[in-house]
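Ticket opened by: R.M.
Priority: normal
Category: complex prediction / small molecule

The reporter submitted a protein together with zinc ion and asked that the result be attached to this ticket for the collaborator who will pick it up next week. Submitted input follows.
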Amino acid sequence: MKWLELSFNTNNKYMIKVTFPDGSVREYSKGSTAYQIAESISPRLANDILAASINDEIIEINRPITADCKIKLHKWDDEQAKHAFWHTSAHLLAEALQELYPGIQFGIGPAIESGFYYDVMPAQGVVIKESDLPTIEKKMAELVTRKENVVRQEISKADALKMFADKGETFKCELINDLEDGTITTYTQGNFTDLCRGPHLINTADIKAIKLISVAGAYWRGDEKRPQMTRIYGISFPKKKMLDEYLVLMEEAKKRDHRKIGKELELFAFSDAVGKGLPLWLPKGTALRLRLEEFLKRIQKRFGYQQVMTPHIGQKELWVTSGHYAKYGKDSFQPIHTPEEGEEYLLKPMNCPHHCEIYKVSPHSYKDLPLRYAEFGTVYRYEQSGELHGLTRVRSFTQDDAHIFCRPDQLKEEFMKVMDIIFIIFKALNFDNFEAQISLRDPNNKEKYIGSDEVWEKAESAIIEACEYKGLKAKVELGEAAFYGPKLDFMVKDAIGRRWQLGTIQVDYNLPERFNLEYTGADNLKHRPVMIHRAPFGSMERFVAVLIEHTGGKFPLWLTPDQAVILPISEKFNDYAQKVANELSQYDIRAIVDDRNEKIGRKIRDNELKRIPYLLIVGENEMNNNIVSVRKQGEGVVGEQTPKEFADMVNDIIKSMMSDF
Ligand SMILES: [Zn+2]
Ligand SMILES: [Zn+2]
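Result attached by the on-call engineer:
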């Protein structure tokens, strides 16, 4: 409600000045709503907007605006609109549950990245199962036909407590107790009232298509000592067609799930005996990962990086010095104690302090810089077991890490070089669709950040200029920088349009200060280097997961685990198949033999499922002529070739793919 408190700086106390995103200003009578403002532009716009931002606070489109402000009108395509839409849908779900399950208690019901959920506790002895979801959906759809207004009300803490206590809503009362008086609002639609900050749609009629997705267990406030609630997930849309498209996308996403494909292709596994969130790389996955590492090492070498290696643990003091222990220590793996000396070690949560110590091993002159230390460094971070997910949320992962120590005047050039590396990787792996975000400091809150105005301005303009120079379209976010420096993050869009955060480049003024890093300048005085943290893949685990989901497991030919499978049409030709495999391996082709006692048709079908790019069929004719019959996955017959001809063809394709790198 910040905007309510703004003083009226307009001269006319009956009019307000409204500034639109394009900078244009219009006057409206005081108390106009976002809906009315939209209507003044076009009735169609008024029909399409779902929420509005007033000076960056998101509100309902029927709230009176009483002071000069900046306005943004949000249609479905804006995150803010989706958020209000799904938040209202969560209320609608609760309203339906209240009718269907008397005595049900409500926890929290937020909008999430895709859709919404509500945590509820049905009356004693009542269970809500997946099979109940269609009935609940039907009830929600029925409620929508009532076209109920969603009515906001400000309420005192005492009244709120009384209202929810009367309904026996103990969870809501607990939430209210944590709120400050004067900040509490409720929203009511039909017979259902929820404690909520908003914003919402102004009427439930807009919710035209609803799908309840799943039921899960969730502890109240994420605390396993508190009661177990039932969490119902759902999603909703303003049009039925959008829901249909979403469901098709979900089906496709399920097929591409890296956990499923990782298992089918025997790339990685998890073992309860080893521990949750600790990935085990199987031989084929390891080989694939090593190819990625070799690829990056080769590029880095060309860009003047030096490989280093550091241990998986380090003295606790190292992270006390870096400041990370104070910030994250409590929520991390706890220190390891030596049995005799009383020393404390931490599993390394990041590689940076080790690399700072490498920098300090010898004195440096300005002529030595930049120094670029690279390490595929495995780090360990505690995640709650409920948060773990395949290779994307793990407790141990390997960063394709490097730290660049440079002079302030080298920052821009170093930044551009890192961007070049990231572009090479995206190109080699067919991520054609990516965007970047520049995170800068909050100009109104400068004291939050370490480092002088001068160094910040220099670094921020270095990043912006580097992006401009490289023609990279980047969104600029103020206030998103870390306290120690600005950064550039890359998001890729995968083959089915999902966004994934991958590489990052981060400027750091903090660690050089904390670790007292120095170089001797041309003036013979001591200076502080600037540090850049960068990881083009992010982590090997996350990158491989994204790559699997992007390609559906059909990796580029240079990377894929098996490039060819040899299929003897009967056992009689197993020896010849093996001979071909041996010959191909001499030409660096990765080929396996399927010598199972199965019909050839079956073998072809099975191996196409394994996403192996080439199938080589061998029988009487092939053996007698020392050739193979080549089929390309998904495309059919290529023709007859000698093993050498086939190998040359594959190697030529790879060479042309990699010629730029
Ligand atoms: Zn709400
Ligand atoms: Zn780092």
